[in-house]
């Protein structure tokens, strides 16, 4: 009876060899499974990292390519605008040169043929004077000759006025040194106050606002 109790005590205190072996085997299996799981997890994470790296590289390459394309497009547009601007500049420069050449040509022509209108307008005056000199003066024909010369003078004055050449007013006017040339003086009186033109010895003329020839006058002092 004591032996049986001792045997039961041993059984309850120390597990049998088979039970111990089973526990060791289970622990080994558990460890193996855990190691496999960790290995699988590491492998999965490694694959994911690789995929992410490749995706990132592809995106970088794509962005880089997109950027290059955009830069190339902008560069092309800038070159086109530059070419257009340069073409407009060259056209404008050529037009300015042509305008300058035409203007210079017109100026040279005006200088060369300056006074052409006046010359044409007074040619009839020269013709009339030539006819008057060629005419034979008969008795009683002086009045007719005088009238012809008077008409010629009127024609001449009209021709001058058509070309903006006008007579300078002098007689009775206040002396103006810019338009009058005093060749002599006389004492002032009631009819001729000081610094007024008493007599015109030779008429003066102006072209527009420019004095062609000052009037030669006698001035009261």
From TrEMBL:
Basic and acidic residues bias locations: 1-25
CDD domains named among the record's database cross-references: GrpE
Domain of life: Bacteria
Main location: cytoplasm
Coiled coil, from the record: 68-102
PROSITE patterns: GRPE
SUPFAM superfamilies the UniProt entry points to: Coiled-coil domain of nucleotide exchange factor GrpE (SSF58014), Head domain of nucleotide exchange factor GrpE (SSF51064)
One GO cellular component, as annotated: cytoplasm
Compartments it resides in: Cytoplasm
GO BP of this protein: protein folding
Keyword vocabulary terms for this entry: Chaperone, Coiled coil, Cytoplasm, Stress response
Matching Gene3D superfamilies: 3.90.20.20, Head domain of nucleotide exchange factor GrpE
Oligomeric form and interacting partners: Homodimer.
Functional summary from the UniProt entry: Participates actively in the response to hyperosmotic and heat shock by preventing the aggregation of stress-denatured proteins, in association with DnaK and GrpE. It is the nucleotide exchange factor for DnaK and may function as a thermosensor. Unfolded proteins bind initially to DnaJ; upon interaction with the DnaJ-bound protein, DnaK hydrolyzes its bound ATP, resulting in the formation of a stable complex. GrpE releases ADP from DnaK; ATP binding to DnaK triggers the release of the substrate protein, thus completing the reaction cycle.
Name of the featured protein: Protein GrpE
Source organism per UniProt: Schleiferilactobacillus perolens DSM 12744
Lineage of source species: Bacteria, Bacillati, Bacillota, Bacilli, Lactobacillales
Gene name tied to this protein: grpE
């Amino acid at each position: 009876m004591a032996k049986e109790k001792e045997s039961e005590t041993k059984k309850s205190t120390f597990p049998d060899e088979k039970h111990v072996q089973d526990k060791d085997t289970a622990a080994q299996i558990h460890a193996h499974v855990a190691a496999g799981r960790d290995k699988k997890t590491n492998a999965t994470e490694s694959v994911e990292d690789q995929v992410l790296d490749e995706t990132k590289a592809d995106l970088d390459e794509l962005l880089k390519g997109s950027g290059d394309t955009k830069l190339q497009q902008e560069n092309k547009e800038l070159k086109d605008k530059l070419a257009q601007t340069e073409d407009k500049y060259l056209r404008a420069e050529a037009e300015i040169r042509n305008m300058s050449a035409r203007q210079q040509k017109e100026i040279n022509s005006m200088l060369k043929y300056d006074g052409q209108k006046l010359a044409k307008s007074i040619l009839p005056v020269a013709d009339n004077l030539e006819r008057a000199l060629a005419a034979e003066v008969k008795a009683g024909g002086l009045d007719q000759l005088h009238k012809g010369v008077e008409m010629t003078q009127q024609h001449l004055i009209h021709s001058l006025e058509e070309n903006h050449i006008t007579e300078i007013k002098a007689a009775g006017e206040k002396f103006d040194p810019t338009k009058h040339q005093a060749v002599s003086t006389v004492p002032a009186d009631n009819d001729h106050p000081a610094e007024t033109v008493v007599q015109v010895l030779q008429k003066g003329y102006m072209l527009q606002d420019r004095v062609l020839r000052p009037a030669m006058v006698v001035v009261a002092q």
